[in-house]
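Researcher: Quick one. two chains, 2010 residues in total.
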Amino acid sequence: MTTDFSSLDPRIITRGREFFNSISGESPSVFNKGWWTGKVMDWAMKNEDFKVQMFRFVDVLPYLNTSESLSRHIEEYFATEDSNIPDVLKWGATKTKIGGGLVAKVLNKTIRSNIESMARQFIIGQVSKEAVKGIKKLRKDGFTFVLDLLGEATVSEKESAAYLDGYLEVLTAIQSEVHKWKPLEVSSGDLDWGHAPKVNVAVKPSAFYSQSKPVDMEGTAEGMLERIEPVYRKVMEMGGFMCIDMESLKYKEATVELYKRLRTKYPEYPHLGIVFQAYLKSVDNDVRDLLNWSREKNLPASIRLVKGAYWDYETVMAKQNGWEVPVWTHKPESDMAYERVARMILENSDICHFACASHNIRTISAVLEMATAMGVPEEKYEFQVLYGMAEPVRKGLKNVAKRVRLYCPYGDLLPGMAYLVRRLLENTANESFLKQTFADEADMDRLLENPEVTLRRQLEGKCIVPEANEGLARFQNYPIVDFTIAEERAAYPEAIARLRSSLGKKIPLYINGKDVETSDMLDSYNPANPEEVIGSVCQAGVGEVDDAVEAASKAYLTWRDVSPAERAEVLLKAAQYLKDNIHDLCAVQILEVGKQWEQAQADIGEAIDFMEYYAREMIRLGKPRRMGHAPGEMSHLFYQGKGVAAVIAPWNFPLAISVGMVSAAIVSGCPVVYKPAGISSCVGHGLVKMWKAAGLPDGVFNYCPGRGAVVGDHLVDHPDVAVIAFTGSMEVGLRIQERAAKVQPGQQQCKKVIAEMGGKNATIIDDDADLDEAVLGVLYSAFGFQGQKCSACSRVIVLDAIYDRFVERLTEAAKSVKLGPAENPANYMGPVVDRAAQENVLRYVKIAEEEGQLLVKLEASADLRATGGCYVPLTIVEKIAKDHRIAQEEVFGPILAVMRAGDMDEALDIANSTRFALTGAIYTRSPAHLERAANEFRVGNLYLNKPSVGAMVERHAFGGFKMSGVGSKSGGPDYLLQFLDPRLVCENTIRRGFAPIEEGDDWLS
Amino acid sequence: MTTDFSSLDPRIITRGREFFNSISGESPSVFNKGWWTGKVMDWAMKNEDFKVQMFRFVDVLPYLNTSESLSRHIEEYFATEDSNIPDVLKWGATKTKIGGGLVAKVLNKTIRSNIESMARQFIIGQVSKEAVKGIKKLRKDGFTFVLDLLGEATVSEKESAAYLDGYLEVLTAIQSEVHKWKPLEVSSGDLDWGHAPKVNVAVKPSAFYSQSKPVDMEGTAEGMLERIEPVYRKVMEMGGFMCIDMESLKYKEATVELYKRLRTKYPEYPHLGIVFQAYLKSVDNDVRDLLNWSREKNLPASIRLVKGAYWDYETVMAKQNGWEVPVWTHKPESDMAYERVARMILENSDICHFACASHNIRTISAVLEMATAMGVPEEKYEFQVLYGMAEPVRKGLKNVAKRVRLYCPYGDLLPGMAYLVRRLLENTANESFLKQTFADEADMDRLLENPEVTLRRQLEGKCIVPEANEGLARFQNYPIVDFTIAEERAAYPEAIARLRSSLGKKIPLYINGKDVETSDMLDSYNPANPEEVIGSVCQAGVGEVDDAVEAASKAYLTWRDVSPAERAEVLLKAAQYLKDNIHDLCAVQILEVGKQWEQAQADIGEAIDFMEYYAREMIRLGKPRRMGHAPGEMSHLFYQGKGVAAVIAPWNFPLAISVGMVSAAIVSGCPVVYKPAGISSCVGHGLVKMWKAAGLPDGVFNYCPGRGAVVGDHLVDHPDVAVIAFTGSMEVGLRIQERAAKVQPGQQQCKKVIAEMGGKNATIIDDDADLDEAVLGVLYSAFGFQGQKCSACSRVIVLDAIYDRFVERLTEAAKSVKLGPAENPANYMGPVVDRAAQENVLRYVKIAEEEGQLLVKLEASADLRATGGCYVPLTIVEKIAKDHRIAQEEVFGPILAVMRAGDMDEALDIANSTRFALTGAIYTRSPAHLERAANEFRVGNLYLNKPSVGAMVERHAFGGFKMSGVGSKSGGPDYLLQFLDPRLVCENTIRRGFAPIEEGDDWLS
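Model:
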């Protein structure tokens, strides 16, 4: 069946014109300026700043439970001079203190009720009774419905279960009413029309399974299936229809898989649907695959096609993570894809029912014309619009197509506000068809034109200006691993298997370009299975350290004079080596230190970033800077590497931190003697291979694992060491600083110590925090990689007003996670790094239990513990005061102390009350508290509404002060300076009274 | 007598046209492209780079005594691809190694003889016999002469004496011939014409007195007089004329004074003249003053008016020193001034003879017309042109004016090359009348137009674009003191007298905004007169130090949060206080530590510079920097002051270094406990007054002088001190670093130590160095402020080939200087700072005498020593090897070790052979050696063809590495970072999947 669709265009436009004419003069209620909502929409469309503030305010509103809190937020969000702000808000924002609060109370009530009524406009009911009533009214108007239970973010299995219960409850309520509803088309028997059941629900699968994650596609699909099946059974019992909604891209694959499993499990029941999003560049393939599958399995399908509601999110995430943007970047491209895919579905109408979900009259007209042209039976397609939106469109649709279904959200106003924000955004976006049609009153022909034409016009005159660069592109972080890509998921087990086939080898030292073996050896083992030896690592003695320092000293004499650009080039080659071997490198970390897949990848990615960044930094710093402007002299400041650098690295970011310190030294012109942590010496040996691959000259990098007690002080004391770069515990760091400050006989320079040490990091949960984000953020900060990060959150400081809600959700979320070996991606947390770490953490668990009150002590299963793995329980205690040991001492394990604060003053006081100042986080939606935290939460890296872990090179240049370090920031613009001595050369250019004129001279004006 | 000169213009132009016509088709030999000189001139005018290289090569040529050296320089200067370079040079530059050096030898000979013949073109003879012969020939052609002996730079009294002898010798030679010369106008009796004697010489007064300096105007004038008087007596004996030439502006006042004294001393002898330069903005006043003086004293004068030959030099010096540019910045302004002043002189022809020295036909025509219009007798004016230049002009002049005198340099080719460079520049400058007339063949009318008209045209369309700045102008160094200003010279004795009237006061501590007195006191005395007590300084004990640290700690809590701009504002106010009180502040230094006037002023100026610079730096660093470009997050890096800073200051730059360290801390948000050196605590107390005047809050600055043994360690060990900024000896610096690295009970942060320590600085003298500059540079670096600078030169490494010449000149130069109290500006060197320093230096003088061979041991006079002043001899020893103590240990006094090096390799090896790496200098005119030194002479501050002392803020950001310091640079862009902890705040700006778009986001392309 082929139809020449290009010839359809005139008919589509004609039909579109008729459509417009049929609704002429009507406007969606949301744009009605007589109402508060309409005013707000109007202001939001006129003023981008107000829009941001307004939508953020709407988002936080449900959390503002006291009049004081509401007043404060209104003031913080809206007390500006901007005349575009609705009077009632402005007045409310500035006058809340008048009249002893009475005025404020009245105003607050007005504002709250206005916004709540805005939300109600889009929501069919807050309780099931209301929903049923609303449905009845819709049906009376000739529309049918699809019901959606609000509340997407479930952070625990308890919440997922509650969500399931909510569905069952509303279905039961409908069940008792449905028999009273007459079909919309009498001819259809018990169905509304064709084969459309009267009952129709939509489910968002990720909400049913709190542990959904792309890396664990199988577990996610199974987890979703387990919870959604009861809903589906109930729907089937009622003879209804269930549609599986599509959420953000990361759940797409699991969602399709869920559909297939459910469809296969109940092959006889036809009323199951799925949604595809036309804004995804993959939509053509995705829909084609599903249609092929349906045909192959002979399992007819139903597809709702939407444009997609997560465009901002998908774009931002892709940009933040370094992924290719998965959505079309021009709106007409989505419209084109929609028409293309709609045609594909219609062409397969024999095995697929089509639900056309769009408010765009061009799109609707195109679907109608294509269906007509292809002779698709009417019962094979229907139209869907959102409840409370685009009333003229639904009216027009009813006129022409009859089969119109309204998508009806139902549920609490709290999740309802999030829904409201999304709808407001949709209505006010510049590219919104609704805004263009009803608010901007754009030209009808433009609105109806073929999106291909629109796109061509938009692209015309747009020339892509390549970013300015001097040979080297601007620094970009290495992409976060994208587990929606099946190949990525497959690569890990393969790499681990490869590694397993060659474990336990002897690992030599590497000094002056040669492997050196020693008799003293140390085994490195898998913490999940201490029987499994990763490698037997030769241990340097004092003699080998001396050899290494000598080799480095010799190399210094030439390496310091290699040009910055050439040194940078070596780093870029090394970075390429890491990119080329990333999965194998991940495998070593997964087995040697128990890193989860994505954490391992992030570690390698960070190592790459360090080299890509420091290479560029050295090129920047390597350009001599002219100082002053005096004519007759030419003065230049430039830098020289200080000398031999001893790098003493930790095991927790075994490649990233090692490579960071080592490459900074090397690119600065300082040859390195590298002592990896004993626990991660196999990972550390990766640097040998890396520098060899990069072609680094002999002696510039020397790999020198060794027992701290034997060679640690010796290396630090060595008179020929100029720089010591250390990351590790405070105790060791301070010892190094003290020893390094003592000048040894023959020492030629003052030693520079770069020390990054511990943290006792806090996260503050304000009483207006978005708990959906805060709970998951704290959980990840505290227990990611078993809490073995200097940046890990070990104290969560919760404001009184939100304490119970937060703690309850956090506790349940923690109890929902899985413990087990890192190599299984289903596990959230694995064993700690070794037996000593296990003993230390268990000691602190005991202290925590003594000092506070246990909330969670989640143990690994008895089976796992029986394997001898270094497991410790995921532990959360509350009732911790700021002078408790568990609130002051760094544990480096999965123990979280919950602390209660009366107000923000107290919270900040607690947060700042340790010797450390490394990282911190705050979750708040109060603009004033964000600003206060930025100023007064005094740590090296503070994150606002973000977890305190996962610092990325450059973006989150990392490092703390006080006893957390010496105030440098790795991955930041001042880092390399620590390895460099500045030199200045000033030439007097006057000879015989004559000075050549140079650019930049302050000569004559 | 008034004449309407505007009406003269048409006549001037007419006369000019006639002049041009009379010489039509002729061209100066220097532009004759058939000759080598003409070719070179042509290339130089076409290519600015070649011009610079060529003239520099000419300058160095006399030093290239071996074929190898000549070949190497030709290659370094000319081995480029530039097709504009004369073939013979290019060929010589690239092919010198061909043919076993034979080709090179031939080429070298050609090049050398070509350049020497260029020089000979402008020089009448190298020996007196030649000169006399040349003069005879000139007279035959109808020209008369003024003879000038080349060799301006005399660095010692011996050289000055030799210069005088040279004059006497040539005069004697002329004396034996002059009777044979017939007068040019037979009517004139024994004179050439009018009252013009046949013998005429010019003298450059500064060359006759090596200790000339503006600050010692009286001494300079007397010194010049003493030496020139014998010449004048000889001239008078011969019935000749002597003209006192005008050199650079700094000698102007002394030169005029010299003229007046000589003229007054021999009132009856009329044949004495003086020169004025029309390019000086002061020329009108200067000439008017002299004419008035002549009339008043009834001592007729003779003035030669020139445009001026030091335009580049005067401009560059003014710009480098922060002075108003003293010369006109547009060429027509000089031409206008010339005509204006010429008129003034002609108006006074009754008491002043006028020598019009110009090659500009417009100028000449104007003078002729003015003189004619005013009826000035012909014998009252004459014309002068340079020998070997502008032959057509002299020919034309002879036609119209007859009385034409040629300015004839005579003497060795070595100083002759310097003269040649100046002439070449004059001929090739774009604004040169000769170039425009004979090389560019500019339009005659343009060349003859009234310079006022030319200026108007040049200024048209030029709009002054003010420099972009954000409220604050770009940093500029505070001007170097300009002692040509009489008020400046007068201000010092006045300020010293004021200070003397109130010496010996009790000086309290200053803690938390209050004066605090102690019972322990220490007197500070004048090193030139230890009886003279400057102040009795209260000495802090441990208790006062604790109080000060406590006050600072308290102040920290608020001061750190004061905005960077506000903190900067306080520094700017403090800088203003210093500017307003500069002479009084200088006086304290002059008496308390024995600083010479200009050194004291430079110290205050540097203090001002530090504050002006750090204020701007903090504003720069105070702006949070966005990190990364990810949409959906906003990440900012900013800085926070580390905490309380202990500042431990030295006495040698008692205000500058104190203010530098203190103000850096304060502007960074770190309150200060300041311990000045005991020796300079009165200067240090100036900071109390300064910060009070600037309105600094209490507790942010605390003045805490104290005995090192009592409070030094205590302050360093204090747990509440976060930063220690120290400048002083290596021993103390290392002790501080070691102690500070030990964490004390209660200590909250790792201490940061900023230590600037010693130096053992070398200056290399290459075999092609310009010794005129090198000798004076080394002398100043080694003995300025008695060598008591960490930047002082204490080793001079001289290449074999130039060793004898350099050492001879250096020795004589050193022997020529005066020793005595710093308050007398005639003295080059004063006493060292105190009795202990005196004893230390005397110990090292003994060591130097033992290790090497004494060249100079210049003692203060017995009278001075009898006063008990802390005098030590100015000492120079040679035959010092690199392992000698005097080559390795810092003395901090006026002892200079001379070391011999076979070649540049050895010189660099010696230079780098100490534990220190602070400053260094090299004098060389080899481009390759300049580059080598820049790379391989590894010190913090390296100066090429400049003294190693006198670093200026920003331009010469100062500090060394190895044992000279920790690798920071005061007055440089990284300095403040040391007082700051970086903080990063990253906000997740996504809410509900929606992120506001920020500028700089890496959103969609």
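The longest strand of chain B covers residues 529-538.
Researcher: Thanks, that's what I needed.
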